[in-house]
Amino acid sequence: MTDPMTDETAPVTEGAMMRATPVRHLAPWLVGLAVMVPLPWVAFNDYQRYLLDLILINVILAVGLNIVKGFAGQVTVGHVALMAIGAYTSAVLTTKFGAPFWFALPGAMLMTAVAGAIVGIPSFRLEGAYLALATLGLAESVRIFISATDYLGASVGYSDIPPPSLFGMPLNSFRSYYFVVMPLAVAGVYFSFCMLRSNIGRAFKALREDPLAAAASGINVRKYKSLAFIVSALYAGCAGSLAAHMSPGFLHPNSYTLVEMVTVLLMVVLGGIGHVWGGIIGAIIVTIIYDLTREYYQYQLLIFGLVIVLTVMFMPTGIGGIIDRYLVNRGFAAIRKARKDAA
Amino acid sequence: MSYFIDLVIVGLSIGMVYALVALGISLIYSGLDVVHFAHGEIYMLGAFIGLWIFKTFHLPFPLVLLGSMILTGLVGMFIERVFYRRILRGGGGYTVGGMAMVICGFGMSIVLQNVAFLIWGPRAVPFPVSYGMPVELGNITLPAAYVWIVAAALLLMAALHLFLKHTRLGLAVRAVAGNKEIAYLMGINVPMTISVIFGVACALGAAAGVLVGPINYVYVLMGLGILIKAFAAAVIGGFGSLPGAVLGGLLVGVIESLGAGYLSGSYKDIYAFILLIFVLMVRPAGLFGVLAKVKA
Lengths: 343, 296
Hints:
The structure holds two protein chains of two kinds.
Chain A: H1 3-9, H2 14-19, H3 22-36, H4 39-42, H5 46-71, H6 79-95, H7 101-120, H8 122-125, H9 128-148, E1 165-166, E2 169-170, H10 174-196, H11 199-209, H12 211-216, H13 221-245, H14 258-271, H15 276-292, H16 297-314, H17 318-342
Antiparallel strand pairs in A: 1-2
Helix pairs in contact in A: 1-3, 5-10, 5-13, 5-14, 5-15, 6-7, 6-9, 6-13, 7-13, 11-13, 14-15, 14-16, 14-17, 15-17
Chain B: H1 2-32, H2 39-57, H3 61-88, H4 96-120, E1 135-137, E2 140-142, H5 144-166, H6 168-178, H7 180-185, H8 190-212, H9 222-236, H10 242-262, H11 268-282, H12 289-292
Antiparallel strand pairs in B: 1-2
């Protein structure tokens, strides 16, 4: 059920994308969208539809994390807290203030973007491990704050979050919710591609390789660092809000612990840091495996941890890197063959 | 006033535990230029190994402490040799190896947590050591556990100081912390010394775990909270500075204890983080930033 996503658009190389006219530029995305529409009917049962929704939410989250971590090179470990902020903002807006989902979602994203800007402030002065520490501290503070605040349900959890409704019709089944999540996920992936192939994306990459050299070539380091954090926070807020309103509409602070952070990290690391498709591939693989192995809870996390350690040790570029290498090698092979034929 | 003094004393003795873990983290940082994110789990492992020794061999508490330190130190050296050495070949700090180490540390912490979970189960276990009668100092009565913690921690810190400043291996450790290439040229076995650094750091973490066991329960998830507090301690004192780590640990312990006593107990764990974030934003070199330049 995941093949259409990767197959429809993967052959479009960066060069072809940049030269393409608007129609050709959008065509693969529209085809991808068309392929994804009937998926809930292809799925056999409600569980698979639930998994489909979950995968798409995680895709949004992983793509967002990849922007700040993979492309701008900022090591942040607090992404789950941003998701929590998005989820709880959305929940409070709908239940306490009676706002409809369609206002709560942008509200949550806005709130998370503000939080992301705050998380980004330490990145002006801190790098690498220090930044990881600061974001870890912020993330844990958010979780402890939620689990100690009665207004947010404390450690009991926050329940009865209403599903979104369209023209008075509640979208509470996994199938109808899919049509809320799917367009947002596709739009999110599309947006990240557009951004990363623009001058903003190139600025991010320059920032990742060498902040000093980037500053010397006229890139406003602070501006682009904050931008990376804010954009990725928008993604996290969107994912959080979507996760909150999916049935059964229940939130618990324990869904935002370090373990969840490691899971999100695994998606990006396994898929390939700094590789857009990597985040998506990782999100799909990890979500499916996570759900299939739910019964073997303790072994599952053991294996997740080991996979992270081994991926970092033996496959630092992840699956995305392997695909990249394959494509590059194929390119070289084609050139070699052309030369041979000419000779 | 006596309430205040009580809080400070409790804070100081817990601070000693944070200081021991922070010392390990700082030692690894000064030696290898990487942050070890799995150190909280080493602390948890140390507590469980101590408990196991205590229950199996019925040894007196100081021997339990020593045995747990040695075994956990060996575990640390094993982890370093098998997993970290390959990653660290690319160098630490802000290089690719350093970044990979952050991610790998998280993975390792989850692995260790679940290994402990599989061996010892999810329940919080009491560490049934009786320290003896409370100690009376003037008009203040101190539980003996706190006296034990402070005494043992001070002893370990003195031992670390002697090891680093007055032995040949300690000199090698300081040389590796200063500059690895030159240490190689001087004929020091650098990989072995790095293993020793890891072993000593893990032994300190294990000591903290065993010391805190009898006043808290021993459970699988005990590592995460202390990891961030020890980081806060190490950063506040200036990362990589050993005296700074001790002072930072004491500061974190006292502030947490005062915050819990006067503000609100349920947000107890946040105070250390707020301090950490504040120090990182205002003065990343730590409060004792001058000391941070003197490595190990």
